[in-house]
């Protein structure tokens, strides 16, 4: 399939100025970017972008996709009560079928919002895998591992066995759209032995790692007391967990020592501003993390604590939140932000050829309507993206050169059927 996107505006970081350009896509890659007029007859599809913004698609670097089923279910509670009183009991009712439809519902929302790939940590991840493969998106999925026995052996760990089976069956599936990571839920939900053998397996098999770290003040302080002065980052580092490429979600209470470890180990910090604010957990010190040389990506967390899967919203909240927290409008600028939602998210998944508009890069692209009234006038498309656009302006979502969403219509999902099936699952399991 050959597609031509003509009269496209690019973000200035792409290096083509403000004049409209042409982008050619062959199969799954970008094969031309420039101002020369191309022969339209050579393409299967020609789309006139009408000077709308074409940019790299969004990456959601931390979520629990099937938790769309719990959207609005446990509100106005701090993290521990939210988990213990509402979410954990509800999760006991989950099944393959409910997780499949919960994940597929999440994917539909993400596609509409311009997200083509997500990093998922949950259970019933074989259901998530099937939903990813069917819908044409990308994902790094992981079976979330917790442990409460001090001397658990890997041969006896049912959750670890699930994670191993998941990797064996799905890693690299869908022409590498689907990848499998290992995941340890958090320091406070795991024991030393489990952390060690999970880390060893990831290293042996070239897999990445996902973690929750330093999300709340209580987590940080209790870890210091429990682990002989080690923070969660220090604890995981001491057990070899960070010896593979790692995405650490939240990082609200990271110390200078934590950041030095994260930079040394190449750990990605995933900023989840909406979820952290809604649960009253706090705010990641974004500029401090960036200044320490740690790469930051953006995540939504699950729809139960957000309540939406919208990376543009996270980008825009992060763009203004830190100005207010620091009483300094220059601490975070618009030019800093697009990479957190695009390229950095792709890198956190190990997808080196994604999240950028370059020759040979994967054609993961979105079109944003710059003629929408909320974007007029637009003196700078990066500024418009960070401060005025919203996901109702996303009019096209493309993953690996395949259009998944265009002008309100899905090409890989029967949205009415999905709504019906999702409601059936919710009525059966969660009323």
Overall number of domains: 2
pLDDT average, as an integer? 96
User: So, the CATH homologous superfamily of the largest domain?
Assistant: Metal-dependent hydrolases
Radius of gyration: 21 Å
**End-to-end CA span:** 45 Å
Q: State the helix count.
A: 16
Helicity level: 25-40%
Characterization of this structure:
This protein has 16 helices and 18 strands. With 431 residues, it is an alpha/beta fold. The chain has two domains: 2-56 and 361-410, Urease, subunit C, domain 1, CATH 2.30.40; 58-348, Alpha-Beta Barrel (TIM Barrel), CATH 3.20.20. The longest helix has 17 residues, at 96-112. The N and C termini lie far apart (45 Å).
List descriptors.
431 residues, alpha/beta, Urease, subunit C, domain 1, TIM Barrel, 2 domains, nine-stranded parallel sheet, five-stranded antiparallel sheet
Q: What is the strand and helix layout of this fold?
A:
Elements: E1 2-8, E2 21-26, E3 29-34, E4 45-48, E5 53-56, E6 58-63, H1 79-91, H2 96-112, E7 115-122, H3 125-135, E8 138-145, H4 158-170, H5 173-176, E9 178-180, E10 182-184, H6 192-205, E11 209-213, H7 217-226, H8 232-238, E12 246-250, H9 256-265, E13 268-271, H10 273-278, H11 286-291, E14 296-298, H12 311-326, H13 338-341, H14 343-348, E15 365-368, H15 381-387, E16 394-399, E17 402-406, E18 409-410, H16 415-430
Parallel strand pairs: 1-4, 6-7, 7-8, 8-9, 8-10, 10-11, 11-12, 12-13, 13-14
Antiparallel strand pairs: 1-2, 2-3, 5-15, 15-16, 16-17, 17-18
Helix pairs in contact: 2-3, 2-16
């Amino acid at each position: 399939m050959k597609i031509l996107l003509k009269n496209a505006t690019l973000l200035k970081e792409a290096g083509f100025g403000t004049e409209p350009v042409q982008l050619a896509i062959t199969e799954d890659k970008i094969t031309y970017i420039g101002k020369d007029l191309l022969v339209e007859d050579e393409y299967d599809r020609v789309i006139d972008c009408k000077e709308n913004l074409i940019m790299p698609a969004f990456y959601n670097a931390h979520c629990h996709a099937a938790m769309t089923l719990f959207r609005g279910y446990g509100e106005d509670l701090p993290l521990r009560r939210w988990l213990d009183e509402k979410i954990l009991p509800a999760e006991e009712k989950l099944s393959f079928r409910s997780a499949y439809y919960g994940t597929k519902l999440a994917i539909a929302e993400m596609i509409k919002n311009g997200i083509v790939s997500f990093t998922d940590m949950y259970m019933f991840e074989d259901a998530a895998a099937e939903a990813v493969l069917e819908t044409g998106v990308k994902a790094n999925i992981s079976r979330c591992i917790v442990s409460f026995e001090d001397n658990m052996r890997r041969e006896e760990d049912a959750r670890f066995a699930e994670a191993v089976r998941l990797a064996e069956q799905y890693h690299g599936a869908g022409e590498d759209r689907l990848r499998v990571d290992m995941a340890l839920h958090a320091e406070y939900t795991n024991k030393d032995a489990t952390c060690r053998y999970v880390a060893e397996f990831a290293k042996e098999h070239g897999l990445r790692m996902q973690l929750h770290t330093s999300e709340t003040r209580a987590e940080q302080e209790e870890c210091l007391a429990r682990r002989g002065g080690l923070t969660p980052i220090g604890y995981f580092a001491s057990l070899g967990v960070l010896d593979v490429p790692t995405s650490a979600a939240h990082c609200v209470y990271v110390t200078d020592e934590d950041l030095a470890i994260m930079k040394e180990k190449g750990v990605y910090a995933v900023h989840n501003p909406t979820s952290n604010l809604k649960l009253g957990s706090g705010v990641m010190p974004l500029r401090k993390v960036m200044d320490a040389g740690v790469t930051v990506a953006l995540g939504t967390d699950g729809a139960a604590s957000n309540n939406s899967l919208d990376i543009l919203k996270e980008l825009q909240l992060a763009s203004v939140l830190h100005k207010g927290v620091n009483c300094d409008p220059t601490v975070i600028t618009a030019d800093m932000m697009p990479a957190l939602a695009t390229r950095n998210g792709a890198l956190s998944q190990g997808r080196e050829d994604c999240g950028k508009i370059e020759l040979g890069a994967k054609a993961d692209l979105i079109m944003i309507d710059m003629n929408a009234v909320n974007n007029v006038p637009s003196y700078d498309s990066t500024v418009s993206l960070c401060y005025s656009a919203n996901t109702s302006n996303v009019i096209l979502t493309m993953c690996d050169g395949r259009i998944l969403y265009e002008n309100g219509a899905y090409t890989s999902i029967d949205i009415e059927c999905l709504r019906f099936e999702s409601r059936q699952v919710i009525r059966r399991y969660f009323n």
